[in-house]
Design brief:
The protein has 568 residues and is α+β, with helices and mostly antiparallel strands. Helix content is 46%, strand content 15%. Strands 3, 4, 5, 6, 7, 8, 9 and 10 form an eight-stranded antiparallel sheet that branches. Helix 15 packs across helix 18. Bound molecules: adenosine-5'-diphosphate (ADP). Adenosine-5'-diphosphate binds next to helix 11.
Length: 568
Amino acid sequence: MDSRRRSPKPPRPTAVNAGTHPRNDKASSSSSGGEGRGGGAKASDALPLPLYLTNAVFFTLFFSVAYYLLHRWRDKIRTSTPLHVVNLSELAAILSLIASFIYLLGFFGIDFVQSFISRASHYDDAWDDDDADDDVIVPAKFVDADPALCSEEDEEIIQAVLNGDVPSYSLESKLGDCKRAAVIRREWLQRTTGRSLQGLPLEGFDYGSILGQCCESPVGYVQIPVGIAGPLLLDGFEYMVPMATTEGCLVASMNRGCKAILLSGGADSRVYRDGMTRAPVVKFASAVRACDLLCYLENRANFDTLAVVFNRSSRFARLQSIFPSLSGMTLHVRFNCTTGDAMGMNMVSKGVQNVLDYLQNDFPDMEVIGISGNFCSDKKSAAVNWILGRGKSVVCEAVIKEEVIKEVLKTNVSKLVQLQQNKIFVGTAMAGTVGGYNAHASNIVSAIFIATGQDPAQNVESSHCLTNIVSINDGKDIHASITMPCIEVGTIGGGTQLASQSACLNMLGVKGASQGSPGSNSRRLATIIAGSVLAGELSLLSAMAAGDMVKSHMKYNRSSKDISNAAS
Ligand code: ADP
C-alpha cells in the first residue's frame, strides 16, 4: 500500500475516472459551474458554441474535407498529376482535415486511452470532485495519515470494512487501538464515498479519551479557535474567559464589556437555585389512578422515602423536589436534584429509574411510557425551565459609571435605557419568545460551552436570559443585570475531561470535581458564564445604541483579506 503523504492533486478528467462518458462529464461540469473541474482542456472549450454543435461542426468538416480530398486524389491519378502538387483549395482542405482530426482526437481519443490506463492501474489515485450530482463511487486511496500507521495489515482491515465483513463502528473494540481505528475508518470512509477528508485533522488528538464517553466512530476532529476575553472582575475574582468561536467581533466585544465592568468596580453574582431535572411520563388505565399517584408524590411524608431511594444512585445526587403534572390518564413527573460538579443528566436519570422501579410496588398498574416525557425539559426552549429553572439559576449585576459608559462603551445612559426598553422588553414581547429577553446571551454561552466541554445542545435553555438596564443615581449611572434561570454546566464528566476543554476549565480555576465542596466548581462556572453574558450584553447594546454595530462587524467579521486567496 502506498503510504506516502500525498499532496492534493490537480483535478483529473472525471469522466475517465468515474467511468462515465466524456461528453456527459463535460456537459455536467459546465452546467454545475464547476470551474476547473471535469477534465483536461479540449479544443471545444474554446468555442462559444454548445458542445453538441461544436462536435457536429467538426464531424461535418472532417468527413466533408476527407471526401473532397479523396475525390481530388482520384482525379490526379486519372490525369497523372503528381500528388504533392496542391492548389490553394486543396491546401485549405488538408489543413481543415488536420485541425478537425486533432479536435476529435482530443475530445474522444485521449479520454479513451486514459480510461484504459486508469482501469489498468486499479484506480490507483484519488481525486477531489465536488459535483453534487456525481454519485459514482470509486474505491480510490486517500492516504493522508501517518505513514507508520498504514501498514499492509491496515490495508487488509480496510478491505474487510469495505467488503462489509467488519462493521466500521466495531474497529475500536476489534483492534484495541483507538487511533488506528480512526485511521482505518477514515480511509474506509474516503474510499467508500469517493470524497476526501483532507483538511479534517487526524493527528494530535487522543482518541482513547473519547471512547465510551464523547463520540463514536471518530474520523478526526474539528478545530475551533479559542479567544480570550477579560479580565472579568466577578465577585472579587478576576477571570480570563476562553471562548471557542468562529464569529468575528464576539471576543473583542466581550472584552470591551469586561473592561467596562472592571473599571466600574466589578460585577456580583449569585446562584439562587441549583438542580437538574428529568421528567418521565407514566400512564394508568384511568385519570383517577393517575391522580392517586399525583397525590402520593405531593405528600411530603412520601418525599423523604423517595429521596432515599433516589439518592442511592450516586454520592452526589440529592433529590430536591418532585413536581407532578397531570394530563388525563398520564402523569408527567419532574424530578429535580443537585448533581455535585457534574451537569447531571446521567445522574438524575439513574435516580429517576430507581424511583420508578420503587413506585411499581405501590402502583403495579403504572405503565412507564418514557423516562423522559419532555417536561424536563432538555435541549428545548420551554416555559417550565424559564419559570422553575434548570441546572444553575444565576443572577448577576453591575453598576456602570457614567464616565465608563462614555469612554469605554461610547454611548450614554438614556440611549442605553431606551434601547433596552424597546428592544429587550417590547421587541421580545412582540416576537413572543420564551426566555429571549436579551441581546445575544447565546453567543457568549455557546462560545464558553464549546471551550469548556459543555453539551452545546443545552445552549438552547442555558441561553435563556433576561437583561435589564435601569438608570440610577439621578440618571448618571446604570444598574445592569442579567437573570439566567437554566445554565446547565458541569466541570466533571462528558466533554469536560478532554485535554483542550480541560485546559480551558483550568484557566478559569474550575477544572474537575471540587474536593472541599462538591458542586462549587460547576456553580462557579455558571456564575462566570453569567458575568460574561453581562459583559457581552453591555457591549453589544452599547454598540447598537451608538449606531456602531454594523461598522464594527464589518471590521472584525469581514476580513480585508482576499477570501478566495485565503481559501486556497
Ligand atoms: P452527567 O450526570 O453530567 O452525565 P456523569 O454521571 O457522566 O455526568 O459523570 C459524573 C461522574 O463523576 C459520576 O460518576 C460521579 O460519581 C463522579 N464525580 C466525582 N466527583 C464528582 C463531583 N464533585 N460532582 C459530581 N460528580 C462527581
